[in-house]
Amino acid sequence: MKILFFDKTNVELKQKLEKIGLECVDEKEKDQKNIIGIIARNQIINAKIIKQYPKLKFIARCGSGIENIEKEYCEEKKIKIINSPEGNAQAVAEYCMGAVFNLTRNIKTSNQEITNNIWEREKNRTHELTNYTVGIIGYGNTGKAFAKILNKFKMKVIAYDKYKKNISDKYVEEVDLETIFIKTDILSIHINYSIENEFFINQNFLNSFKKNIFLINTSRGKCLKTNALINMIKNKRISGAALDVIEYEDENFKKINFKSKSDFDFIKKSNKIIITPHIAGITYESKNKIQQVLLNKISKII
Questions:
Q1: Structural domain of residue 6, as residue ranges?
Q2: Which of 62, 79, 95, 158 could pair with 74 as two cysteines, CB 3.0-4.6 Å apart?
Q3: What pLDDT is recorded for position 112?
Q4: Total number of domains in the chain
Q5: CA 201, 207, 208, 213 torsion: positive or negative?
Q6: Mind listing the pLDDT tens digit for each residue in 193-213?
Q7: How far apart are CA 17 and CA 7, in angstroms?
Q8: What's the CA gap between 206 and 229, in Å, rounded?
């Protein structure tokens, strides 16, 4: 049985699979009829590719989202899609907590002031974390991991998930979307990307908040309409935002496509926005955990 690796960065996972008796090969492999599994990260795995491997049983994604895999075709052919959202949940949660500190304590703003020879203390007075209510949209692996950390700081945490019910636990209170709009001070987005969720966070959504909020997006760039965010910041309805993802990323997340250069220029220059290159889930530990999650799941189906 052979496993085809499109993701060349996962040498350790390859070694682990070989230890349990699987032969791991790359795209140069000519014996396509004996490929039973594909390991991918951000590579596009569409029907055209899948058709080349008649005995394919599974496609494993090193990460959470599976929008790079043609799900409908896999369902038709009874090919199992495996992902590993458990593996990087803690890494994403820690990034979000760092964003909370950065946004609520004016760290970027005051740092930029100092680079401009401004030493301002009183205008940078802020609130302590217990003053804030965090609203989580999407209560899956990363949403829950983030809620656990927030609870350690005695912050109020509420969550809405349109796909799940009865999600209240010791970390979070389940609420409806209207309550999210009324009570949230810090909004954190943790939804998967799909056609249904494309620009779920849009102008109408953001206009619904009763308070001026902080916003954190570590899900997918196309879940948040960038121009709507910018409008809200310009109108002082959003006090600050941390973006680890942005709608202008290409489908492999390797570069930015400048569909709106003026919007991106605003983001780069604004002292209200922190932007990073899709790194929230990338740690040495998360890489190891993702590999172990996939190894366990693959072992159960071969």
A1: 2-83
A2: 79
A3: 92
A4: 2
A5: positive
A6: 999 999 999 999 999 999 999
A7: 14
A8: 8
296 domain residue, yes or no = no
CATH number at residue 237: 3.40.50.720
pLDDT above 80: residue 218: yes
Give the C-alpha separation, 3 to 112, whole Å.
50
CB burial class (10 A; 0-12, 13-18, 19+) of residue 176?
exposed
> How many Cβ atoms from other residues are within 10 Å of residue 3's Cβ?
21
Mean per-residue pLDDT, 283-302: 94
In this structure, the answer to whether residues 151 and 185 fall within a common structural domain is yes
Domain end position, chosen among 60, 83, 106: 83
Helix (H, G, I), strand (E, B) or coil at 218: coil
Examine the pLDDT at 259 and tell me if it is beyond 80: no
CA distances from 241 to 101, 171, 177, 244, 267 (A): 12, 23, 20, 10, 10
> What average pLDDT does range 222-243 have in this prediction?
97
269 and 149 together in one domain: yes
Confidence of residue 252 (pLDDT cuts 50, 70, 90): confident
Structure tokens belonging to residue 254: 């390797």
SS3 189: strand
Q: Is residue 302 part of a domain?
A: no
What's the pLDDT tens digit per position in 159-178?
999 999 999 999 999 999 99
What's the CA gap between 150 and 132, in Å, rounded?
Answer: 10
- Tens of pLDDT, residue by residue over 41-51, are 989 999 999 99
Please calculate the CA angle 77-44-164 and round it to the nearest 5 degrees. 70
Residues 213, 93: Cα–Cα separation, whole Å: 19
Token pair in block for residue 302 = 């071969």
**What is the Cα–Cα distance from 62 to 193, expressed in whole angstroms?**
16
297: left (phi > 0), else alpha (psi -120 to 50), else beta? alpha
